[in-house]
Amino acid sequence: MKSRNQYAEPFRIKMIEPIRQKDRETRNRLIEAAGYNVFNLKAEDVYIDLLTDSGTSAMSANQWAGMMLGDESYAGCSNFFNLQQTLEEIIGYKYIVPTHQGRAAENILMSMFVQKNQEIPGNMHFDTTEGHIRLRKALPVNLVIDEGLKIESNYPFKGNINLEKLEKKLAESSRDEIPMIIMTVTCNSNGGQPVAMDNIRKASELAKKYQRPLFIDAARFAENCYFIKQRDIAYKDISIRDIAREMFSYADGCTMSSKKDALVNIGGFLAFKNNEEWYEKAVQIQICYEGFRTYGGLAGRDLEALARGLLEGIEEDYLEDRIGQVHYLANLLTKLGVPVIKPTGGHGVFIDAKSYLPHLPQSKLPAQALVVELYREAGIRGVELGTCAFGYVDPQTGNEIQPAQELVRLAIPRRVYSDRHMQLVANAFSSINARKEKIKGLKITYQTEIMRHFTARFSPADS
């Protein structure tokens, strides 16, 4: 990957949105009123918003132009067929089920395959995937390789699934116990880490051997393909499009939140390679919850923006700049001694809160405490991916089950912020460094059973 100062952004800026920073006293008041949960803040009260890269991209002039060509016919709109053709070119799948966003696609897939007491293995499920599995009283099983959980490891493909553990699971279980496998590319939960092509291919071979379908969570597939091209010498001269075609060829279908690598603000889809029976079953559910098969909860203009965004999202110069900015921020923080997951992933910088705030035990939610402190310091909004997001209360014992990692994610929207914004994030951490030993922990005062981090409320923990 080139140094950040060896190239410029592959776009010009034609429209801006003003942002303003609230003063510290106001920020302190707002975060307390929000129950110390940044999800409860108004967007206008945030200065630099790194909560998520989902749906926060800046669309291109070409995408906006496409929205003027929206065919809002209820059935058979032309924009759906544009999307269908684009996806067949990029991923090679014939049957496309559009949805209003990725979690809706997950809902349809889980409704089709997942039942109570089943296990769903994957490399590392993200929060909505886990939520949908748990809603059906089933168990998400994360089988990411050991290197994938080591913060300091520079292993190039830390999103890989442990193939030995996967085969053991499949060999010991029937199809009624394990109905499918999910591979998340890139692997969001451990830092946007990529999955190697060879790992996907071998997982596919195991799926075929034990007659289980393999699905890809493709929210950040283009970034995964870019890492394959950069880190696997066998693919250095292969185009991103051709890498994508091969990667998807190993699966039976995929879900996608198009609000990530397709560069749109809303949208998603479920797709099947060649199983018409699955497609028709999915459409029955889609019509009940999303809309007719050719719009699936989206306006025609959104379908057109999605079709065009998918093509822009696999352009190599765009990916170089997008991932380059993530690496730029990671390097700034590393120079300040902030412990970040290595190597840097595709869509955000992930900070190891346990190492950064060693005086706070995991029970006092160090990641959430750091998220709050970052907002207090500079009006910057990140997100906790630790005990609140991925921990849960064991229904049998009532005990809190803590995850292996306690992370703060700074997810960078695509084509939105400049490197000067990234420098301001680093400046905020420089100030926090001087007083981090004084940061106090938090405790949960309100939580829901599933995906509690979206709506939880907190208060300062007892000393």
Descriptive overview:
The chain is of the alpha/beta class. The termini are far apart. The protein has helices at residues 24-33, 61-67, 78-90, 102-113, 127-135, 163-172, 197-209, 221-231, 240-249, 276-289, 300-313, 316-335, 353-356, 366-378, 387-390, 419-433; strands spanning 48-49, 95-99, 119-122, 139-142, 181-184, 214-217, 253-257, 268-272, 348-352, 380-381, 383-385, 392-393, 400-401, 407-411, 442-446, 457-460. The chain has 2 domains: 4-53 and 316-460, Alpha-Beta Complex (Aspartate Aminotransferase, domain 1); 61-313, Type I PLP-dependent aspartate aminotransferase-like (Major domain) (Aspartate Aminotransferase, domain 2), CATH 3.40.640. The strands form 6 sheets. A 5-stranded mixed sheet has the order 2-8-7-6-5, sandwiched between helices. It has a 3-stranded antiparallel sheet with strand order 9-14-11. The chain has a two-stranded parallel ribbon with strand order 1-10. 39% of the residues lie in helices and 13% in strands. β3 (119-122), α5 (127-135) and β4 (139-142) form a beta-alpha-beta unit.
